[in-house]
Structure formats: C-alpha cells, structure tokens
Fold Transposase InsO family protein.
Amino acid sequence: MMFRLVQELADDGIDVAVTCRILKVSRSGFYEWRDRPPSVRDLEDAYLANTMVDIHAMSRGTYGTPRVHAELRMALDVRVGRKRVARLLRLTGRSGIGGNTHKKRRKQPMPAPHEDLVQRQFVADEPNRLWCTDITEHPTTTGKVYCCAVLDVFSRAIVGWSIADHMRSDLVVDALQMATWRRHPEPGTIVHADRGSQYTSWVFGHRLRTAGLLGSMGRVASSVDNTMMESFWATMQRELLDTRRWTSQEQLASAIFEWIEAWYNPRRRHTSLGMLSPVEFETLHTAAETAA
C-alpha cells in the first residue's frame, strides 16, 4: 500500500509532502490513514509478527517460512496461511538459512570388508533397523574438531556421536558405543558407512560383530551412497558450523553437543517427518505401536 511506503520513508526522514507528490497520492489521505485506529487485521498481524520473531530466535535464526509456519500451526495451534507467514516474516527482516554446503573431510578409502546392504534405499519402517554413520571436520583457532555421528534412518535422530581432536578409529567406535548403549538394537540392525579407514578398521568391525550389528559400505568416493549423512552434515554446516568463527576446539565441541542434544534431536522440524522433530516422530510412532 502506498500510504505504508510513505510512512516508511517518513521514518527515514523524507518529507511527507515530497513523497506524496512523487508517488501521486493524497497527503490528507495519508494523514487520515495514519491517524486511523489499527484494524483487527493489523493487530493480528502485529501479534503474529512478534510471535514469529520469537520462533525465529528459538530456531537460532535458521527457520524460514515453512518451519515457522509449522511451529505456529503444530506447536502453538495458530491457524494462519503460509503466504501470510511469508509476508510477515519478510516484513520483520527475518529469513531462514538455505543453500548447499559441502563438508571438508580427509578420509582414506580402503577395500570394503562389508557389502553394500543398502543400495541407496535409505528407508526404514521402525527405529533401529538402519543406521548411517560418517565423520566431518571443522577448523577452529586452536585446531580442527572432528565429529562422528550415527543417524537412525527412520526418524533422522542422531543416536550416537563423538567429538575429538583426531580421526583415529576410536572416534567412530565411541559414536557406535553410544548408539548401542542408548538404543539397545536387536541383532541384525544395519550400520551403513563409507570406506574410510576408520570404518574398515578391525576394531570397528569387531564392535559391530560383538553387538550383533551388520556392517554395510557404499562405493569409494560416492556421496550418494551415504546421502542421509551428507544431508545431516550440510544442515549442521549451515545452521551451526558456518555461523561464526570458533576460537577454540573446546568451544566448538560444546556447541556441537548442545546443537545435537538440545536442538536437532528434540526440536528441529523436518519436512520429511511431516514437520515433526526426530524425538516427536519416534514418540508418535511408539504411541501408535502401543495402541495397536
């Protein structure tokens, strides 16, 4: 609306009379519009905009229109159209984090001790049927931080992780150990990885066998053979790793721990999960199984 533009320019110090003359709108009409009490719609928009600012802040500045809309609808039971959310979010100057990023990694591919049991079919009908695992790295002022994560394909939950200043085999063993301790998977759960030397090591294979897990490996240097982990790392890269310059390994390690346990697993909404978080998705599944 032209009158709103006149007001915005006036707030920036541009004379109302000059603006109205250039835009060919009535100056008296502008003052009448300005002095009119706000409509119910205006008040609702102001309330929604304030709520959306809070949601955006809660998401650490990562949510765009789809997830802000989902948070309003699913968490706060606010019935509002997606186009209205997009318009108000734009007016507040907030936007989500998007785009593709690529992780930096140095892993030496080795001969695979396990067949590819997944064949790019990253589908599971319940928890603890198919896990994926991988390593990423990120620099800090005092040196690199390496993170290994184990992801449950069913819910996208990170069921195990480890953080260290090295890439030795115990980095991946510790993440697997956490996953098995937390989830107590039945024998036959598949653990899919790439052919990095950590995953082809004897100690990792021994831990798999001890826990009754089935190892699976994709092809050499093929990101699509472990696409779910690539997607997870890209999300962490956008929403955490690339958001600032990290001054120490301890600072980044603490931030990764907090991002996974306090944000990603319990609260971050996923389009592939019907805009639920991993914890919410598994809770819903468990309730449905119990009621059946």
